[in-house]
TrEMBL record:
This is NADP-dependent oxidoreductase domain-containing protein. It comes from the Eukaryota. The active site is at 59 (proton donor). The record marks 88 as: Lowers pKa of active site Tyr. Belongs to the aldo/keto reductase family. It comes from Anopheles christyi. Substrate binds at residue 122.
Length: 301
């Protein structure tokens, strides 16, 4: 039903903060039934690698996703090539190319697949290191070199980044070994968006993908915003659908995370347009109310 490529119609079921084998299976079952074909998996690694070892998994959702897909793909007459799997390097604590490769191999084993369609660097810093430390630059380069090597080998079809600013992207592009990031995943919603970053990514052929489209999971502030609710009412849609469609109309990818069948179906009900005047009202929220819900990557040197 929906493209699994980097177009605006690439609907993804995010699994971050969705834990437990039964829940993962249920969410993926609902999502595949609704037409989702893009699955985002996240492996989080705990603490200092030298102290706790390379297999200190905090969230086991990758392993559960791999097991669930073995059952669910045949159920929906799908093959591995019919779906698009994204995973992410949460921690760069290893600070070297060997560590990065180990993490990728671990994800492949957990997901029970020979390749990932997209693999992202979670942030431009290094776990356990001050964001102002100049070595962040060196370890960013080492991580990209490792992922570039794995892409050339074929186990990663595409590679990208998350939370990278224009500064971080310019630095990377100056020495990216000929491989430009396919995606930059950043916070993007009516309260907070960066037009300069969007224009730079478009110029460089980097697809911009939004997270926190609905604000923070800890608050309904954005979904309860009076302007968002008014626009939703005028269109006969929900605030969630308006917020997701707002990004889609800017050619921004979205990462709708949901657990229930109702919300999964709600997130793909975006076959409508927001009139220009209403888009302007939503855009103006950045100046009248705007603030971030997530951390600020500008602090990373």
């Amino acid at each position: 039903m929906y493209s699994v490529l980097f177009g605006v119609s690439a609907f993804l079921v995010g699994t971050y903060q969705i834990h437990g084998q039964e829940l993962i299976y249920q969410v993926l079952d609902y999502a595949l039934e609704a037409g989702y074909r893009h699955i985002g998996s996240y492996a989080k690694w705990a603490g200092d690698v030298q102290e706790k070892g390379n297999t200190a998994v905090v969230y086991r959702n990758e392993e559960y996703i791999g097991t669930a897909l073995n059952t669910l793909l045949p159920k929906y007459n799908l093959k591995r090539e019919d779906i698009f799997i994204t995973s992410k390097l949460i921690s760069q604590a290893g600070k070297d190319e060997e560590f990065v490769e180990q993490m990728v191999r671990k994800s492949l084993a957990n997901l029970q697949t020979e390749y990932l369609d997209l693999y992202l660097i979670h942030w431009p810093g290094v776990s356990g290191m001050q964001v102002t430390h100049p070595d962040n630059v060196k370890y960013r380069a080492a991580t990209w070199n490792a992922l570039s090597k794995l892409q050339r080998e074929g186990c990663l079809r595409s590679i990208g980044v998350s939370n990278y600013t224009v500064k971080h992207l310019k630095e990377m592009l100056a020495d990216c070994k000929g491989i430009v990031p396919a995606v930059n995943q950043v916070e993007w919603h009516p309260y907070y968006y960066q037009q300069e970053l969007k224009e730079f990514c478009q110029q460089q052929g980097i697809f911009l993908q939004a997270y926190s489209s609905l604000g923070s999971s800890n608050t309904a502030e954005l979904r309860d915003d009076e302007t968002v609710k008014a626009v939703a009412k005028s269109l006969g849609r929900t605030p969630v659908q308006v917020l997701l469609r707002w990004a889609v109309e800017q050619d921004i990818g979205i990462l709708p995370k949901a657990r229930s069948r109702h919300h999964i179906q709600e997130n793909v009900g975006l076959n409508f347009e927001i009139p220009a005047e209403e888009m302007k009202r939503l855009n103006n929220l950045k100046d009248s109310v705007g603030h971030k819900f997530a951390w600020n990557p500008e602090t990373v040197v």
